[in-house]
User: What shape does this take?
Amino acid sequence: MSRAKPRRPGTRSGKRAESLITDAMPIKTAELPADLADAAEAALDDLLNPDRSASFAIDVEGDFEVATDPQRDVPIEPPRTARGKPPAPPPKSHAKRPKTLPPPPPPVDDAIIEEQELPVIPQLRFAIYEQAEQLASAQGAIVAAGHVVVAGASGTAGLSKVADQIVGGIDAILVALPGGEPVIDIALAQEPRRPIVIAIVTGKMNDGCARAIAAGADLATSRPHDLERMSQVLLAAARLHTERRLAQNARGAEAVLRAKLEEISDPDPRGLQPIEVFQRVIELELKRARRFEYPLSVALFAVDVPPPPPPAGIRGILRARAGNALIHTIRDIDIATQLDQERFLVLLPYTDLAGAAGLGRRVVAAVAEGDPVISAGRSFPPRVVGAVAGVRPGQELSFAKLMKDATQALAQARKDGAELAVQP
Assistant: This one.
């Protein structure tokens, strides 16, 4: 016989106690599913790809509805409800879909217009010689175009007024033809800083332009004088005035350079050039010969005095007479210089070896025709020995080689007693 286990006071046993413990626990209203993240991702995927869920058919199977995709014929799982656990989401596609939409491009304001800075037309100073009834309209059109009218006249009395302004210096004149030919003559006489001449012609424009050209005008227009008609010819006059001014500046710069060159060179264009100028010319001619492939030659001459040596000063006189005959024999395109106390060097552009040999013989003959120098009972006729060297088009061009060939040929001519040697 078993004996019952004693219980503590205040305790209960059996199912009654288990019921009381269960009643004391808090009641859970809903349990969160474990695949909440997968369901949220599937819902976002459906929002980003509405084509997959745009249309579907409903089939009833059991206690819940099944949606099928008509394009893929695959069941589409409905969203999970609180009453039951939904089936697993459909398999993910291998193609990567963006999880966020790209930001929209910034709006383009069509009202924004790029600003361009237009060139400013130079303002010209005008003088007008026109008929009295047309003078006001011509002046108004010129002023409306942005230019200035410094004088306006008509008739015989107005010739002197307009002529004074032309001589004083204006940019352009508007003169009527026929009748304004003296005004144009005065303007053309102010060259190189003469004004732009605009002739007003009548009749057919073709015949009027011919009369304007014959009178010496630069541009031509016709009546009536209004802004629409005059604006074109005034624009042409402004551009022509600008181009003439640029050309004058270029000619002035060229004149300055020529003046500087003349300071270091012989004033006689056919005289013997200083060695510095001769070297600059050589560099320029070598570049031209290489670029345009034209022949180039040099000629070397030496004063030859037979032994015994002459008295002091005689050699200098013979050298001067030989140099004078040389510079009067060479061509305008040839450049000559004196290398030392007895040698002369001549550059012959555009000249092949045959042409250089011909010029060398002429120089030797011209020097020999000079008057002899008589001193101490002896006669010293002027005489030179020459040598030429050159290159044909397309050959390698080197001034050092030309000088070397000419020097060797000159030494051989002196040794052989020849007047001229040609180095092939």
Q: What stands out?
A: DSSP finds eleven helices and 15 strands in the chain. Residues 275-423 form a domain with the Alpha-Beta Plaits fold (CATH 3.30.70.270). The CA atoms of residues 33 and 84 lie 10 Å apart.
